[in-house]
Automatic annotation (TrEMBL):
GO terms for cellular component: endoplasmic reticulum membrane; mannosyltransferase complex. It comes from Dendroctonus ponderosae (Mountain pine beetle). Coiled coil: none annotated. Its main location: endoplasmic reticulum. This is GPI mannosyltransferase 2. It is a multi-pass membrane protein.
Length: 473
């Protein structure tokens, strides 16, 4: 079987199904009157009315922010919570198109570019997950099942709507794969370093301009370098000069790589500071943007003298944490209120699966064997199939566990489903084993049905809820 071709087909057909489901649910059910941000649309465009009729169900919740940024840029301080790579690139493409066909079509063009880009990037993300899993677990069957589950993941609607989940998952899976390939290649002392291999840093660097948790991908890269150094040290242990040279070279490569990957994030923070921590006239903004800011008392660029935002005065002025806390009340256990219990229920399956699976893996691979060696990617036996060996993937489980714990205590809890679904392959690895012959253990038929129901329910009900402005974010 040509697994890659099947994955591309499954990815496309699952996206097509979501588009149809969005259309039906958006017109069969009345929208919930949500107290949410709405971007300024161009209503007197007949073409936009058609596009709103066909795809309007995807422009909900945070998608409204991405449409606004793509259309107007960062005009309000609260928009700084959304990183620039995706909306700015789409906005640039949209402006290029409307230069040819007319400004009135900007909304239609932006929606089309967002949706088409997500459908294309989702296929690339599914293939990247397949390649990553094949390389890390040495098991094509689990890789294929993981990619198929990715196509029907519980946060699927966010991988079609104008959100960053699809782009981020592609960059993350590809960045992880490139890091593992780098380690595998240069674990051989006979390999000569090639500058072109540094291109593997690009996906990780771009991920830091896509979502804030892209910074975690840099930690994965540094982990790979440390593992490579341990292997190199063992190889060159008999030559002191070579050992010191290897250590010095590693430090230089790590520093250079970290700075390179941080640059997009740092540039955005510098841009935010220049935009909202300085004082200058704002008359150049469209009248409708100025009016919306006035109606909602939002902070416009160049108004620092008026509002004197506290984050601008910090030693390291980072806008993201301030905006999240000030506008969305994001902070340690800030979401722990009785009225939020439905959102905790929504997040429980993802957090339960990840937490249990990661703790179990860490117990088996680090504690039970009394190794406590996390800085290694050397081949190890597969606990679920003793005949197979693959790379030590404990770091992936530690990464996933961190995401789960961070989601439990520091973010709006319902976001955890899409956050983990877009940032970690572990969820798909764990679930895929239940649908292959390499099972963790024999689950009861009821447990397997519950897992299948979880995917199907969130895939369908999540889409219907999202498209009608019901809380499913």
């Amino acid at each position: 079987m040509d697994y890659r071709a099947q994955i591309v087909k499954t990815a496309f057909y699952s996206r097509a199904f979501l588009v149809v489901l969005q259309y039906i649910s958006n017109h069969a059910i009345s929208d919930h009157k949500a107290d949410a941000f709405r971007y300024i649309s161009t209503h007197n465009s007949t073409d936009f009315s058609i596009m709103e009729h066909l795809l309007g169900g995807f422009v909900r919740w945070d998608a409204q922010y991405f449409m606004h940024i793509a259309k107007f840029g960062y005009t309000y301080e609260n928009t700084l919570a959304f990183f620039p790579l995706y909306p700015v690139v789409v906005g640039f493409l949209g402006e290029s198109v409307v230069e040819l066909i007319g400004q009135w079509y900007i909304d239609s063009v932006l929606i089309l570019i967002f949706i088409i880009a997500n459908i294309y990037l989702f296929q690339k993300a599914a293939l990247a997950l397949y390649d990553l899993t094949t390389f890390a677990l040495n098991n094509c069957e689990i890789a294929y099942q993981s990619a198929r589950l990715f196509c029907f993941n519980p946060a699927s609607v966010f991988f079609v709507a104008p959100y960053t989940e699809t782009l981020f998952s592609y960059l993350t899976f590809l960045g992880m794969l490139r890091a593992l390939q780098f380690f595998k290649k240069y674990s051989d002392p006979n390999k000569v370093f090639a500058k072109k291999d540094l291109l593997g840093l690009v996906p990780i660097a771009l991920s830091t301009a896509t979502r804030s948790n892209g910074l975690l991908n840099i930690c994965f890269l540094l982990y790979t370098f440390i593992c490579w150094y341990k292997v190199s040290r063992e190889i060159w242990v008999w030559q002191r000069k070579s050992r010191y040279f290897t250590a010095a070279k590693l430090v230089c490569v790590m520093l250079t790589s970290t700075i390179f990957c941080l640059l997009p994030f740092l540039f955005f923070q510098m841009y935010s500071y220049a935009k909202f921590c300085k004082t200058f006239p704002v008359e150049s903004l469209p009248a409708e943007v100025l009016q919306q800011a006035k109606d909602n008392e939002w902070i416009l660029p160049g108004q620092h003298a008026k509002y004197n935002q506290s984050w601008c005065n910090n030693l390291v002025p980072l806008a993201y944490n301030y905006v999240q806390k000030h506008y969305w009340n994001v902070g340690f256990m800030q979401y722990y209120e009785w009225k939020q219990w439905p959102n905790f229920v929504l997040a429980a399956p993802m957090l339960g699966i990840i937490t249990f699976s990661c703790l179990r893996h860490i117990w088996l691979h680090l504690i039970k064997e009394h190794k406590l060696q996390i800085f290694t990617l050397a081949d190890t036996k597969d606990y679920y199939c003793n005949k197979k060996r693959h790379m030590n993937v404990t770091v992936f489980y530690v990464h996933a566990l961190f995401l789960a714990l961070y989601s439990m205590f520091f973010v709006h809890i319902q976001v955890s489903t899409r956050l983990i679904a877009a940032a970690s392959p572990v969820f798909y690895w764990v679930c895929s084993r239940q649908f292959t012959r390499w099972k963790v253990r024999a689950l009861s038929p009821l447990a397997e049905r519950c897992l299948m129901f979880y995917f199907a329910f969130y895939f369908i009900v999540g889409t219907v809820s999202f498209c009608n402005f019901f809380p499913w974010t």
